[in-house]
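Suppose you are handed a protein chain with no further information: no name, no annotation, nothing but its sequence. What can you learn? This example shows the usual starting point.
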Amino acid sequence: MAYSIDNQDGIMTFTINREEKRNAVNDEVMNGLREVITYIQNHDDVRFLVVTGAGEKSFCSGGDLSEFHALETEDEAFGMLSKMGEILYDLATLPVPTIALINGTAVGGGCEIATACDFRLVASHAKCGFIQGTLAITSGWGGGTYLFERGLRHDRAMKMLVDAKPYPADLLYEIGWAMRVFEGSKELALNEFIEHMRKIHPAVHKAYKEIELRKWRERNMYERVMEEVRTCAKLWESEAHHEAVNNFLTKKNSK
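A reasonable first move is to predict its three-dimensional structure. Written in structure tokens, the prediction is:
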């Protein structure tokens, strides 16, 4: 299965389980994430949602281009992009704290998933970045919009997007994207991070989340995310993007 779901003591963990594909997102992963989000929206037994990847090399390498490269037109791309864009918006607006437990590389859409979460705990060996620009597209699941909402200095957020390259963990911490950098066990890092949070009544967490979500509603956050999705869909149709994807897949298959 492309993902696993674990719910223990109020901590629900969603693990992308495609290690051989660098935990790239396909349709099955999207549906699994939707399953988790729907459960949390309809049940009160989850206090934290943790998103992570299998293994130690990759958190998530973004969308699986070997599957999504068949999407050629703007409309075809918009179907996939908007599906994941809506899933990530629902993830970002969940009433419980969400934690990206970044066990390895998070690039492209993987960086968008992490940015949609409230907190980012990054393994010291991990690199993360919005590399979509190398494929002649922008972030397409809402990640750029979330990045500008995460409290980074504007120039640092903009630089992260336009650099289109992975940043090392220490730089991610320095610019404020990573809340903590950890060595060793990701499970231990998670337990240490939520040690005090889990002592607080969940109603308090939900009340604080609502303060942020109220701001997002006032700022038309959903509409802004979908504009980002539409922009990416337009660029997806370009010759520059298709050429970049073909070059990427050719290089990948020749290894």
